[in-house]
Specification:
Order of helices and strands: EHEHEHEHEHHEEHHHH
Strand content: 5-15%
Shape: globular
Number of helices: 10
CATH topology of the largest domain: Rossmann fold
Largest sheet: 5 strands, parallel
Oligomer: single chain
Strand order of the largest sheet: 2-1-3-4-5
Number of domains: 2
CATH superfamily of the largest domain: Response regulator
Length: 236
């Protein structure tokens, strides 16, 4: 899966912000397709019909459903899809909550172009992006000026969270079915497409995809495909 085959879902209820961010993303020629939706319900409905998405940019302050609820729903149904949260405000407790719920990053809408692109690139490589001020303890909330350390699933976030994990391993011990799944992932197929090809249910595919990602130590499909490429798998 090359960079130009990447697909991004942009979820934000402000049309001007969506237009500006989409123009920025199109200018770097990284994504083959950028899909826009203006509410949480539309994002959930879209992914129910097409889960072949490499990364989601999700506004926390949506008009219909809270961004947290949308995040929780998507990660429950498609845990392999990385989600970067967007917000107009930085709040370390909120960021901690979102990361604990499965978000792969948090970007403020006032961030510079370079920061936005760097965060997306890092997440696509399997890393986690957190605003530097959060790591340095420079963000306070109105109710609690003295913030506890930000954690991910009860593990403290450190500066190493900005670095994609080492993906070099010798033996991943994939089962035959998991190898079949990975082969189709490399082709860029969605879960539903894999289900049709292998004649199994989409829910079974999701289980196998999660197992493949865990064995490879990959946080998303893009990293899994990169690992398989580095291993020389499925090369004709």
């Amino acid at each position: 899966m090359g960079e130009n085959s990447l697909r991004l879902l942009l979820v934000d209820d402000h049309s001007l912000f969506r237009a500006g961010l989409k123009a920025l993303l199109q200018s770097i020629d990284k994504f083959n397709e950028i899909i826009e939706v203006n509410c949480g319900a539309s994002a959930i409905a879209f992914l129910e019909g097409d889960d072949n998405i490499d990364v989601v940019l999700l506004d926390y302050e949506l008009g219909d459903i809270s961004g947290l609820d949308v995040l929780t729903h998507i990660k429950g149904e498609n845990p392999e899809i990385p989600i970067i949260m967007l917000s107009a405000h930085e709040d370390s407790l909120l960021i901690q909550q979102l990361l604990n719920k499965g978000a792969s990053g948090f970007i403020t809408k006032t961030s510079s172009t370079d920061i936005i692109l760097s965060a997306i690139n890092l997440v696509l490589l399997g890393g986690i992006y957190v605003p530097p001020a959060v790591l340095l303890g420079q963000i306070n909330t109105q109710d609690n000026p003295a913030q506890p350390p930000v954690t991910i699933k009860n593990q403290p976030i450190t500066l190493s969270s900005f670095v994609a994990p080492d993906t070099v391993k010798k033996d991943y011990q994939l089962t035959e079915r998991q190898t079949d799944i990975l082969r189709e992932l490399v082709k860029g197929l969605s879960n539903k497409e894999i289900a049709r090809v292998l004649d199994i249910s989409p829910s079974t595919v999701k289980i196998h995809v999660a197992a493949v990602l865990k064995k490879l130590g990959a946080k998303n499909r893009t990293v899994a495909v990169t690992i398989s490429s580095d291993m020389g798998l499925f090369v004709n």
